Amino acid sequence: MKTTFPENFLWGGATAAMQVEGASDVGGKGLSVSDVYIFDENMPKEQWTDQWHMMTHKQVEEAQDPHSPKYYPKRHGVDFYHHYKEDIALFAEMGFKVYRMSIAWTRIFPKGDELEPNEEGLAFYDRVFDELNKHGIEPLVSLSHYEMPLYLATEYGGWVNRKLIEFYVRFASTVFERYKDKVKYWVPFNEINCVKHHPFVSVGVVEENHPHIEQAKYQGAHHQFIASALAKKACLESNPNAKIGCMISYQLLVPYSCDPDDIQKTVEKQRESLFFTDVLARGYYPGYTARMLADKNVVLETEASDEQIIRDYPVDFISFSYYMSSAVSAHPENLEGAVGNLITGGIKNPYLPTSDWGWQIDPKGLRTALNQLFDRYQKPLFIAENGLGAVDELKEGDVINDDYRISYLRDHILQIKEAITDGVDVFGYTSWGCIDMISASTSQMSKRYGYIYVDQDDLGRGSKRRIKKKSFDWYKNVIASNGEQLDK
């Protein structure tokens, strides 16, 4: 029985290109779907998250105007593009074994449908991978992390259009061949199941006034399933030793009560979330699919070869983000909602504390999630995201005492260790995000996750100086002790 982390456990941190890189006007980069989101300090706070879930046609149109006066934070990030050597050196100082990152599709194919790649973009990632290799850090790379080319959304209608499979596979094949000696672990799509909640960044579909949004979501997902399988095929042709995983957002669901209706509703919601890994990991559509899609009035358009493609190229491992759990009720009318739980909403669990953004914190739920996923799939697991967004105070002498973050991470890492003792095969952990960056959901900078503070405010003002937080040295000791030293 294992009671400690494996000797070769991959400790590290995670970011996404659309949140850290910046330099959107450098090196021939095109606009992505994430470059459309604004930050306006005069906007009501509830709208900061609302726009993540509901993109409008007007906002997409305004974002393409080069003279727009609005501030688009994800075009600026924290300038990792020019600071990557400094940032990677800090990751190495912490002892990172792995760095989960993404390649911006729009740096390689700015519009997405070009026949030839942009060499400047390819060369940038060559430099990043070489720098990681210099420090002995293994990259785990997401190919599409909410940054598909905006042009494919506006001109082709997003992933509902089957042509995107061709464009994506060209992009994937290009980077697989280019970096076959530099990258072993790949994830085709970040949080592929989140198309249910924010279709614009997931499949490039504007939800506003859409005649049949559920059809668009699941048709887009089907095309991504095919693209993921074909990406694995292409990857193995370039590097037979590479590993292709999938990535979902996993918000553990529990019944609010022992009412049989609550239990059944939880089963149904769980299936909606795990449908995506069921297809990608098992290689076929599960038996409950027919009823689930019929209830949504969805009829998938498929081709004869689709079933075999999915069956022939299942993923090698499953990665997931875990931030919270959520209670489910079949009768939520008279219950308090968990408004901060972005993925499934749900009912507020009275046994759990909440973060400043209303996310319900449930470390023990991570152990349950690991066991559920391993029992279901019997494939290696990788925790690709886990962290606490909070307002950090920079004090005199560059001191940031983020004990609340240390407590959050320590409690979750303890539960990973418990899951390993349970017999779960989990081979890595990358906390989100190892350096402060633009929030995906609210486009804020002040919602910070990192071990490294970046001197920048919500409107992009600041020196961008990197400053170590208290959690920096704490995580350094966690890695050096392979998860044994977890005290502050």
Automatic annotation (TrEMBL):
Record GO biological process: carbohydrate catabolic process
UniProt EC number: 3.2.1.86
Principal EC category: hydrolase
Keyword Hydrolase part of the UniProt annotation: yes
Keyword Membrane appears in the UniProt entry: no
GO molecular function: 6-phospho-beta-glucosidase activity
Source organism superkingdom: Bacteria
Record key words, sorted: Glycosidase, Hydrolase
Any one cellular-component term (Gene Ontology): cytosol
InterPro entries per record: GH, Glyco_hydro_1
Family: Belongs to the glycosyl hydrolase 1 family.
Name by which UniProt lists this protein: 6-phospho-beta-glucosidase
